[in-house]
Amino acid sequence: MSSHFRLPLGFRTVAPDERLSLVDHLSELRRRLIVSLIALTVAFAAAYIFRDRILSILIRPLPIDKRQIVTLAPTEPFITIMEVCLWTAILITLPILLYQVYAFVIPAVGTHTRRRMLAIVAAISVLFLVGVLFGYYVVLPIALRFFLGFGGTQFVSQVRAEDYFGFVATLLFATGLTFEVPLAMAAFARMGLVSPQMYRKQWRLAIVGIAAIAALLPSGDPFSMLLVMLPMVVLYVVGIWLASLVGRPLIWRRNPLLDAAPPPHPDDSVAPPV
After folding, report:
1. Statement: residue 272 has pLDDT above 50
2. Which residue in 66, 64, 125 sits closest to 94, CA to CA?
3. What is the per-residue pLDDT for 271?
């Protein structure tokens, strides 16, 4: 008889021989959704309490003379604040949300696998947070300086709240996803789709792609473009290192007979030659 051990926040242990029925899967999905919604609700309430502080932090990258942002509709302040609080809540609860998704996809895990799950979730969350911070302190000021100063004195620029905070959220989440590149490279190598040697061989193509991404960013000057490229190059090198650690042979080069054969046990005795 299989045993269940439930822990708060969606952590659970399933016996290795346990088989979940469709009803059990739906119940598990409901529990994961409830945990995620509770975490989001609590984080949203906390973000709403500190909304003035959050808005002040998001407005800070603007030039001093542009920090008086405007609204053009009676409902715009309310909708804008709710959206900012929601995106903040998602960022705060990202580790919990990722764990719920991962644990639902792979429900039956042992202690070692659970540690690996937590390590993967922690790595994804930390890299995403570092990417958000990089976007806030480096990319966002460069982009704002370029866009707001593009027309020179021909335009009188006024920053609208809804458009500005939507732009900030999109840019920060984009830079956060960019910093997930090393884990994505390691995952492809682990699945046998790409080898570390292929990453090393195509480093010139990767540099061209990184330069193209940096060029698409409105940096405005070569120094700012180089400032954006350097972390991406470092991330690519880290991705190669991770791929070399966890990579497997390419799928189309594997021997199915050797892969299917179980490894010999170290305690198995070897018969003496006759």
Report:
1. no
2. 125
3. 45
- Cα-based distances in Å from 244 to 123, 187, 199: 17, 11, 10
Per-residue CA distances from 203 to 42, 197, 206 (Å) = 44, 10, 5
Burial class (CB in 10 A: 0-12, 13-18, 19+), 246: exposed
Answer yes or no: are the C-beta atoms of 219 and 225 closer than 8 Å: yes
Task: For residue 123, give the nearest of 75, 82, 184 by alpha carbon.
Answer: 184
More confident residue, 101 or 56: 56
| Rounded Cα gap, residues 160 and 158, in angstroms | 6
What predicted TM-score, i.e. pTM, was given to this entire model? 0.73
Q: Give helix 111-134 / helix 181-190 axis angle, nearest 10°.
A: 150
Could you list the beta-strand ranges (E) of 58-187: none
Instruction: Give the residue carrying structure tokens 């001093």.
Output: 64
| pLDDT tens digits along 112-159 | 466 777 787 888 888 899 989 998 998 888 888 888 877 667 777 788
CA 118 to chain CA mean position, Å: 14
Does residue 108 contact residue 16 with C-beta atoms inside 8 Å?
Answer: yes
Closest among 167, 26, 4, 14 to 84, alpha carbons compared: 167
Helix (H) or strand (E) segment spanning residue 267: none
Query: Chain centroid to CA 63: how far?
Result: 29
